[in-house]
Amino acid sequence: MSFNPKIRWKKIKKVTEEILGKPAKIHLSTALIKLIAFCDVEETGETNILISAYKCKSEEQIVAAVSHELAHIKLSEIKHLAYNLHTTEFYSEQSEILKVFEEKMNLKNLNQVITEMENQN
Ligand SMILES: [Zn+2]
Prior knowledge:
Zincin-like
């Protein structure tokens, strides 16, 4: 997969905030070496999503990683599910979020992208 210099960051942020219903900051970071992504939600509601600069190079990979974290945040806020749980319910939520990004950003096969990224770990 080649590096795509035209990553639509504003669009990714917009769709992320539509899904969450609140502002969120997305950070491309060298702090994550083994993890693909990480998120932090403060009691104030401030939401930060970190994406590994090493693992996420294409727009598809970035969107897939953001979607994974969004599924954690949504399940945590709605059902109080722990962040480390990757249950059937988690994957079904993740699929729904990936579909929203596919539709709004005209992307394809994001489920396959996230599965490949997870299997590389
Ligand atoms: Zn996870």
